[in-house]
Design brief:
two-stranded antiparallel sheet, 13 strands, nine-stranded mixed β-sheet
């Protein structure tokens, strides 16, 4: 199968989200975890950080090999009994990371989804949908472009545009005014009877340094409403709100929303990662790895290590660790598979790292 999105997301995010750096950190998530296994020194000196005590040890499956689908399937088999029990009779939502609908490298590859769907078939879970809200373009157009349509007949899955599902309201913080703002999100992503599988990718990101399983779920849950613009273009107000108005706001919102919007199973594909100006305009990295865990933070932590970043450069992972939302201490994460250190690749970072790491610095008095 062929690899798999468009750069308009970069444009609309950069023009509207790069202003303002003041956010009162109400939960006082200060600091940054040390970036381990990276040969580059971080920009600035992040304050000391210790993950919150009490997070239980976690297990993360790491697989490598020359088949993306097989890597995914084998990693999932590691947790076969736990996943089957956790799903029960719930609706399974496979959430790909399709930033756009027309640029393959930025989207979740069909082979990754094939591995997931084969695994679900093997444990007899058939109530499955593939659901997405791209930043640009209709979800169904992306599904067709990336080869997902065949899964309807082969596995009996349904293809869902999150923008057309019923909605509920959550509240996001905007760092420019420090006020909560009502944000419309897909109800099915909040439903306790949904089991969300985040089919994420190893990618750099021009706003959050990198993107993993949590961001894939939270951001796309904010729907694009039909707007008054010519040509039926969607109003992206909810998506803007989740991004929080700046590099402090987006990390804060991702963690603030995580208790209600998070993956129940993280499946991070690193067969072909993206480095540099991700999540759309980066370049490929031949990495051939897959990361799976029921603890999304543990999976994202391992993903950050595989990219040579560590969570200390990724604000929402640092905040989540300090809030005790999962396990982010590598000494308490059991790697099931080959040694993590043998598969780390140093990804080229986005060009504007000083700005991207500004969340590490103390807030300036008004």
């Amino acid at each position: 199968m062929s690899p798999y999105c468009s750069s308009s997301r970069r444009g609309f995010l950069k023009t509207s989200l790069l202003g303002g750096l003041g956010l009162v950190e109400g939960l006082r998530f200060a600091g940054s975890a040390h970036a381990q296994n990276s040969t580059r020194a971080p920009v600035g000196a992040p304050p000391p950080s210790t993950p919150a005590a009490g997070a239980p040890p976690a297990r993360v499956a790491l697989t490598t090999g020359n088949s993306r689908a097989d890597n995914t399937f084998r990693a999932l088999r590691t947790f076969e009994k736990e996943i089957a029990q956790a799903i029960g009779n719930k609706l399974v939502i496979v959430k790909p990371n399709n930033v756009s609908t027309s640029k393959p490298l930025c989207a979740s590859h069909a082979d990754q989804l094939e591995g997931i769907l084969e695994f679900l078939k093997s444990i007899r879970k058939t109530n499955v949908v593939i659901a997405e809200s791209p930043a640009e373009g209709p979800a169904l157009e992306g599904f067709a472009n990336y080869g997902y349509n065949k899964f309807v007949g082969k596995y009996g899955v349904k293809l869902v545009e999150l923008d057309k599902t019923p909605v509920d309201t959550v509240y996001c913080m905007d760092q420019s005014d420090l006020r909560p703002h009502a944000c419309r999100v897909s109800r099915m992503m909040l439903d306790p009877n949904s089991f969300i599988i985040s089919a994420a990718k190893l990618k750099t990101h021009f706003f959050t340094v990198a993107t993993f399983s949590l961001k894939n779920v939270v951001v796309a849950s904010a729907i694009r409403d039909p707007g008054p613009k010519p040509g039926g273009e969607m109003d992206r107000a909810n998506r803007f709100l989740v991004h929080g108005g700046g590099v402090r706001g987006i990390h804060y919102n991702l963690v603030a929303l995580a208790p209600r919007l998070h993956p129940h199973l993280a499946v991070i594909d690193g067969f072909e990662g993206m480095e540099g100006e991700g999540p759309v305009d980066g370049t490929p990295v031949d990495h051939r790895v897959c990361v799976v865990s029921i603890d999304w933070l543990a999976a994202d932590t391992v993903g950050a290590e595989l990219m040579g970043l560590g969570i200390g450069k990724v604000g929402h992972l640092t905040y989540a660790a300090q809030a005790g939302l999962g396990q982010a201490n590598l000494s308490r994460i059991e790697i099931l598979g080959p040694a993590l250190k043998d598969h780390i690749k140093i990804y080229k970072e986005p060009h504007d790292m000083e700005r991207l790491l500004s969340w590490q610095k103390p807030l300036q008095s008004a």
